[in-house]
């Protein structure tokens, strides 16, 4: 039996949206903001969303395993043996390629018991537009191998993945002690080249200070996945979280959703680091003066709440000459981030051209002398 207090038994839910014309599965189409059938082209409008606020959950209750059963769900996932990603697959899918690293995986029949996602940002960028953004991004990198650029231009399908994140809210109050530095100048006489010179020297007068700062943190965003380098996902920011919609399975139709692999308490450690950095900035501003020293800071954190949310990412993992290249596109804004492939041939050509130019310039300068 699992020691995880969140690991409870629950029925597994499967969401499918059959086309009312031909019976094929519908998928969410970002361009039309509707469900669309790729088989017959039928478009079915989304159900009118109920405008409800996205409820925050109590952090301590979750850690103690005291969340209501309605806040939990069980989904069928496959874990990639290479990068560890846990991705939902259709129950009828027997084999697939990991969208994060292009490793072939065989889907198992295991299930993942986790906290339900409460909100998501629906995809706004279509796969066609994401593909164009990725090709344009590669085209601006002259040192990328031509073979990889051509491979990407062939229009290989991108995977639309909803990537898991935590958001944390917290009310903080911090008592601090420190010193405020005020810069002043003294004039000194110094000897230089056998002569007396007046020189202004900057000095700092320090005075002891103490005080309190308070800040309410709203939606501190933390990636709940380890499948991609954090530098990738950080580079996709900013996200407009004001457009978060209450979770609805229609938005996920035709896409995949990654299960979180960073637990709630682990995510809060990163969230606290972000909060502490902001609190330190607040303290320095409160101390004022020209310089600041912080000798102690004691923070009280209260009323911590959280949300499990999903953010849209178009993803491509290409195997080229034995190496995997990964690219991600923000499904809301179209921002692209990826590994920088380099062509040794192009680099050699660039070095040779550089040497030729340098020699030509040197020869021209020698003739003018």
Structure in words:
This protein is an alpha+beta fold. Helices cover 22% and strands 40% of the residues. The protein has helices at 59-63, 127-139, 146-153, 230-235, 264-287, 344-368, and strands at 26-29, 34-37, 43-45, 57-58, 72-79, 86-88, 95-97, 104-106, 111-115, 119-120, 159-192, 195-223, 245-246, 256-259, 291-320, 323-330, 336-338. Strands 4, 5, 6, 9, 10, 11, 12, 13, 14, 15, 16 and 17 form a 12-stranded mixed β-sheet that branches. The longest helix is centred in the C-terminal third of the chain and has 25 residues, at 344-368. The radius of gyration is 28 Å and the shape is flat. Residues 1-14 have low confidence and may be disordered.
Number of β-strand runs: 17
Low-confidence stretches: 1-14
Instruction: Write down the Rg.
Output: 28 Å
The shape, in one word, is flat
Q: What is the straight-line distance between the termini?
A: 86 Å
**Helical coverage, percent range:** 10-25%
Report the major sheet. 12 strands, mixed
- Average predicted local confidence, pLDDT: 81
Strand content: 35-45%
Give the H and E element order: EEEEHEEEEEEHHEEHEEHEEEH
Structural class assignment: alpha+beta
Q: How many H/I helical runs?
A: 6
